[in-house]
Amino acid sequence: MITSHQYRERIAKLRPNVYQKGKLVDRFDPTIRGGINVMASTYDFANDPEYAGIGVATSHITGEKINRYTHIHQSMEDLLNKQKMTRLYCQEVGGCIQRCMGIDGLNALSIATYDADQKHGTSYYKNFIEFMKQVQAEDLSLVCAQTDVKGNRPWRPGKQLDPDLYLRVVEKRSDGIIVKGAKAHNSCSAYADEIIVLPTRNMVADEKDWAVAFSIPSDTEGIKIINGAFAPPQRKKLEAPYSKLGISHSLTIFDNVFIPWNRVFLCGETEQAGKAALFFALYHRHSYCGCKAALSEVFTGATALAAEYNGIENTQHVRHQLAKMIQIVDLIFAAGVAASVNCTKADSGTAIPDTNYCNAGRMLAGESIYGEYEALAAIAGGLAATLPYEEDFYDATLGPLLEKYIMRNPDISAENQHRAFRLFQDMMSSVWGGHKLIDALHGGGSPVIEKVAIYRDHNLEHSKNIAKKLAGIPIKGSTKGIFREKRSWY
Ligand SMILES: Cc1cc2nc3c(=O)[nH]c(=O)nc-3n(C[C@H](O)[C@H](O)[C@H](O)COP(=O)(O)OP(=O)(O)OC[C@H]3O[C@@H](n4cnc5c(N)ncnc54)[C@H](O)[C@@H]3O)c2cc1C
Predict the structure, then answer these.
(1) φ, ψ for residue 183 (rounded to 5)?
(2) What is the pTM of this model?
(3) Contacts (Cβ under 8 Å, ≥6 apart) of 328
(4) Does ligand 1 lie within 6 Å of residue 431's CB atom?
């Protein structure tokens, strides 16, 4: 395990290939620094004895103690610890912890590479395990570029007018492959050591060129990171942990990038490409059951705070609203716990969370976010939008006036009223707040995709049989058993 200082030093050595507003920018550009702070905290937390049981795992490859973000889940306990870690870290930093794309990509690859080797006699799993030894020894920060730019949505990769709209292999050589294309919405690529690339979707037999997976240093020749950096509005005097946050997302261009064979994890195996895509999405939705529980709890806490500071915490509509929000926090987290408890094992030995519970938790999280914004806005009142500038609170003439007229609940100081409403404004009425709203809806897959998965994986015949039996209609088989059958992955 390395320290956050070592992580920052390593990122500082990367070749400049991050672009913003038409210019090549330093990775430690002030706009990007908030994201680096969050990524760095994943190293601090792992070294904090308070999180030792959760943030540190034992490698099943080497037996060494490793940062859990570099671990392949071996058991139900691993899945539960990953979910707890995600929730605790996210609530500590106040948002996305940013390292789950990496762990979720690694776990998906552990299954898909193993299965490809069993079926095709390839050596991807060996490549993968050698790569994992490096990931764990060096505590690499990894991101996952799965989402292709995708062109015209209804058309498959091979049917697009431009074949590069899904990333593809353009040349196979004795020493490696050359890939071309672009990945969208690539979170944290500006400050990660490596980018894991996975297919976006299942592939059919004639889509071998698009069935490719690999991992490569983020500053490899030919990679351009066209970055968008987001952060809560910066403070001048009223410092607060929330204003140290940030995140970046990029359009990552792969312009004829060379990938050596030892870093290639799939190349033409269409069935396993689909598996890699599906498993990344599944692990990522499991992560969301931790991180979105934390985000929903931040909204619940902020709403309760707004009620207290406005002096309305004992009114019935506030209590009902808070009960509804707490229920959502608990259900999202419970879905992840149930998914972990109801896990299965891949042939590679990797533990797989239950698909329906993961998708149900992620879908609830995505669909609830607009309601959470609405609840906080409703109970905080309009000041969350119209709060005067921070400088005015520190102006010799205006400051005392603002402190006089911001007062509500007399037990709360003017400064704390100001702090609370500055937080609500940052959370909802800022570029950052708008950005996070769409992030919480689409990140990890849009709600419609979860509906597709839930419908696909639930045994509706079993449900219908229960109804038929109650109606006295003859059925085949038995309706006994509380849970639906676990999905078979083979
Ligand atoms: C803040 C943020 C961070 C993200 N980070 C990452 C990341 O780090 N790595 C990563 O790989 N991805 C990341 N994503 C991508 C995320 O998973 C996608 O946004 C999500 O899967 C939706 O894809 P899309 O944005 O291309 O939307 P689209 O696919 O364009 O969807 C738009 C709408 O069209 C519908 N639609 C799409 N295709 C069809 C079709 N064929 N038929 C009918 N309807 C269709 C969708 O259901 C949706 O309603 C991130 C997204 C966000 C917003």
Answers:
(1) -115, 135
(2) 0.96
(3) 296, 364, 365, 368, 372
(4) no
